[in-house]
Amino acid sequence: MKKFALSLLLVLAFAACGMAAEKPEVTSVRWARANSGNVLVTLAKENGYLKEVGIDIIEMPLNSTHDALTALSTKQVDVTSNNGTNNPLQFMASGSDFTMVGGYMLKGMYIVAKKGTGWKGIGDLVGKRVAAPKSQTWITGPLMDAGYNIDDVTWLTYSTNSDRLAAVIAGEADYASLSGDLLFRVGNMKDELEIVAWADDLMPNYGCCRMNMHTDFVRANPITVKLILKCLIRAEQFLRSRPDESVKILAKELNAEEAFVAAYLKNPNYTPSADPVKHSIKATWDIMMKTGFLAPEAKDYDLDAHINIDLYKAALDELIAERRDEDPAFYDERLEFFRANNL
User: Which terminus has fewer CB within 10 Å in the chain: N or C?
Assistant: First the structure.
């Protein structure tokens, strides 16, 4: 722990001094890649940000959440980012030594129902069949906050988001929670379906997918982690300022139609962000404890020790010093957002 603290002090000192010639401790980083990829990684690669800092991200196909987090636990990969927040927290509570250092998807999930169903609030789910995991905290948290029990809902388990959508279409489910990659399909079914609520409306900035690393990797390579985060923040700025160009880049990377990618990437309710959103991670953990999705002994787990916001803050501070003039509104907003959601 002392070695890690010393390394972190060095990183922060470099940031304060504005040193630009830092070298990453490791130059190759193995990143678990889901089928949907990671637009921030794609943009950081395509625009040469990673090359500038001397880091090569090797994306390793692991679409299964269990496989990706198991690979991280056994150090077969160095980073996961597409596996939600609940799942890595469950692994951590069960003994996997992960540290959350940033994020990928901040928000983008939503609830669909048949056209005309309407929506008055979270209580509409009570007594209904909902195609979603019972552990979906951005639904269960607001349900409990409204005074309901999560067992007041009939939860229907399906293996994929497409299966959940099909359940609503077939009338097997009244509602379904879906991911952003189905927005194109849902948008083409406006006569049959409607989005009745966005996850962010129910639990603001809920932190859909966190960026996880093995704690040993973070301790040994703080400069590498900070440099990667700098590249991802730059990619976020590019995405926000050049959405059309970003759609073209990601569509090419995924070998997908631009209209398919634009349906989610340009939707204002779909937001990638590298910010750790520590408050949301802790809120998710608390909901999981209340709903029994973490073992009782997890109440003594030191979650704060496994959320590192310092490296992200160092990366953001350096970029503000180096690049704020390129997009003052973006960098000022990112700093304000960090303070509101982490401190």
Answer: N
